[in-house]
Amino acid sequence: MTHRATPGQTVGPFFGYALPYPGDNHLVPPGSPGAVRLHGAVRDGEGNPVPDALIEIWQPGPDGAVVRSAGSLRRDGFTFTGWGRASTDAAGHYSLSTLRPGGEVPFFAVTVFARGLLDRLFTRAYLPGADLGAFPADRRDTLRAREESTGYRFDIRLQGEGETVFLRFPGHRAD
Amino acid sequence: MPTPSSDAPTTTQRQISDEITAFGNARRGTDLAQPALDYTPYRSSILRHPTQDPHPADPEGAELWAPCFGHQDVDPLEADLTIQHSGEPIGERMVVTGRVTDGDGRPVPHQLVEIWQANASGRYIHQRDQHPAPIDPNFTGVGRCLTDAEGTYRFTTIRPGPYPWRNHRNAWRPAHIHFSLFGTDFTQRRITQMYFPGDPLFAYDPIYQSITDPADGALLVAHYDHDVTTPGWSTGYRWDIVLTGTHRTRFEPDEEGEA
Ligand SMILES: [Fe+3]
């Protein structure tokens, strides 16, 4: 028997003093061996930056194994937990320091929260070269992180031209 | 009393309430358990909701698991929002407790719960909160805890006040506590708000009303529980939280008793 899920609500405008914490966006220290940057901008339906969004990522380690280590909230600088959180700045930009995810078709699992967004959105930032044949041909590029010298860029468009493909998982109600 | 600034919104509560009614009628019987992302009475949603349907996907790899949090992440004292300063905060001291379960009714053990809220007068400790109500030097309004083995969370805090916001002229949010939740897999991630029973502002609030089925909206309302009160010390509310189903069929052995 499936129970009705408690509905979601917007993260609102005031999460900024509650959810961010020191080191939230540094899954590994920037510049440490293997560190890559994952960053990008969050934009609305008019292409304007969303300065009050919160991005979370969850990923396997470079070997593709799911990480089962605690310590995301009080990072010790040595333990890779696979989870991180980044707030957007005034220009709608977020940035994380992390490791390259491994696995057969590697991606960063991404959750998006924002003022104005009544429920969270799920998406994926696939590494370049992934076969995204399961996604609509004209929109699958929105799921690709672009390679840069320091890591990857993954922009998120909430609405409009180049709208990011967001995901619905089985058991999630249509909304 | 401060005068509203010249760029104060001009839409009236009457107009918003009419939109709430129209939207509710249009969606009646459509069995939408979740908020409508394109709920225009909540003005900030207009440019921030996706227009395309979400793409169906099966969870893969790490998505079948949730991040782990442990006792090194959260100090047990973080569950008491009334002891973070040198004095007692002003307001109704209360315990808020409940269970986090998944869509199959199984507890979500040893998982992170984060909350944030306004103080008793409806003011957040946030520089963008311009509500001219007093800041309480003894109340920050941020707490964390881990659920126990049965999925139970428990906070001691102050009942928050309602507060005005700029969605429309004379818009007021019902009193609420923001909750951030993790499940046993990534797809259960949820951020929501807990409300208090019988709040007269429910009917006027486009964020609460974005859940167009009243039976689902009621799932966000805590209930007063005299068994949760502490004699001579605090009132008590109970609010249980149900996440979506997990996609792993059973708990792996290493999940039991961990953290
Ligand atoms: Fe709030």
From TrEMBL, chain A:
Q: Does the keyword Metal-binding apply?
A: no
Q: Does the keyword Methyltransferase apply?
A: no
Pfam families attached to this UniProt entry: Dioxygenase_C
Keywords in UniProt for this one? Answer: Dioxygenase, Oxidoreductase
Report the residue ranges that make up the Intradiol ring-cleavage dioxygenases domain in this protein: 36-103
NCBIfam families from the entry? protocat_alph
The similarity annotation says:
Belongs to the intradiol ring-cleavage dioxygenase family.
Q: What is this protein called?
A: Protocatechuate 3,4-dioxygenase subunit alpha
UniProtKB/TrEMBL annotation, chain B:
- Which keywords describe this protein according to UniProt? Dioxygenase, Oxidoreductase
Tell me the InterPro entries matching this sequence. Answer: Intradiol_dOase_C, Intradiol_dOase_core, Intradiol_RC_Dioxygenase, PCDO_beta_N, Protocat_dOase_b
Question: In this protein, which residues make up the domain named Intradiol ring-cleavage dioxygenases?
Answer: 96-124
Q: Tell me, what's a Pfam family for it?
A: PCDO_beta_N
Which Gene3D superfamilies does this UniProt record tie to the protein?
A: Aromatic compound dioxygenase
Keyword Oxidoreductase carried by entry: yes
Tell me its family: Belongs to the intradiol ring-cleavage dioxygenase family.
Q: What is this protein called?
A: Protocatechuate 3,4-dioxygenase subunit beta
The gene name on file is: pcaH
